[in-house]
Amino acid sequence: MEVRRAWATPDATYAPSHLVVIARTTDYGPLPAEVESAFTAALRNFAKLFDLPLHELSARELFSCGSPDADWFVIASAEHVSALGRHWITENFSQLHPSTQGFLQAGLSIGIDEYLAARRRRFDYVRRIDELLGSAGLILSPTVAISGLPADGWIDEAGQLGATGPEIYATMLQNLTGHPAITLPAGRCPNGVPFGLQVTGPRLSYQWLLEIATRWEAQYPWPLTAPGFAPFTVSAAMQSRG
């Protein structure tokens, strides 16, 4: 696959140059079967829409220097501690959600060497994605690697309410590198929960991603209301207000 390196914003009038499939940005193993089936169907439709082949890369091939997901957690938790302040965290800790408590506890334990090492690896991740996408490439991945979250929150093996596992998300890389991304409604998992296909573009390609989403919506429209609910209209909303 030829990869062009450029810094110009893609023109919204032309299609992507290449499609890169990355199921996971950190090696957490294969996707759950129900997510894999929805992801495969969405990839097939996306490749058909833009008449391009799919090039699959694994996390190991892409990031040999470290784990973007783990480094995002190090950087984000440490910087939350810095922003909130240790005194504020101590005073308000008992009032926070258990997942927030765990997140801040991790941030409090991170040393300067660990933090700076993660910051340095971040530059490698940015460079790698820039080189991979060039001026008009796209990365395709699941938005989340799970078919649904419990309504009451995430319950751990001990039956305690806690933080969701890092293997669930596929959005940490974009948060770390700053590359724009958009989620496209792309069918449903076997349990009926909607599936989201995440599309990541080159730097500054915000408008281009919106154009791609518009083209996807025209080809694969989705209902605007959940099953069993009446379609939303302005007149209905005004009537409900009396």
Task: Outline the secondary-structure elements.
Elements: E1 18-21, H1 33-50, E2 54-56, H2 59-62, H3 68-84, H4 86-92, H5 98-109, H6 112-133, E3 137-142, E4 154-155, E5 161-162, H7 172-177, E6 181-188, E7 194-200, H8 206-219, H9 234-240
Parallel strand pairs: 1-2, 1-3
Antiparallel strand pairs: 3-7, 4-5, 6-7
Helix pairs in contact: 3-5, 3-6
Structural description of this entry:
By secondary structure, the protein is an alpha/beta fold. The protein is 44% helix and 13% strand. It has a single domain, classed as Amidase signature (AS) domain (Amidase signature (AS) enzymes). Helix 3 packs across helix 5 and helix 3 crosses helix 6. It starts with 17 loop residues before the first strand and ends with a helix.
Could you spell the SSE succession in H and E letters? EHEHHHHHEEEHEEHH
Please identify, by name, the CATH architecture.
Alpha-Beta Complex
**What is the share of helical residues?**
40-55%
CATH structural class: Alpha Beta
SS content category = alpha/beta
Rg (CA only): 20 Å
Q: What would the principal axes of the Cα set say about the shape? A: globular
Q: Compute the separation of the termini in Å.
A: 59 Å
Strand content: 5-15%
Number of strands: 7
Low-pLDDT stretches are 1-8
- The name of the CATH superfamily reads Amidase signature (AS) domain
CATH fold-level topology: Amidase signature (AS) enzymes
Mean pLDDT: 84
**Tally of DSSP helical segments:** 9
> What is the domain tally?
1
For the biggest β-sheet, the strand order reads: 2-1-3-7-6
The major beta sheet can be summarized as:
5 strands, mixed
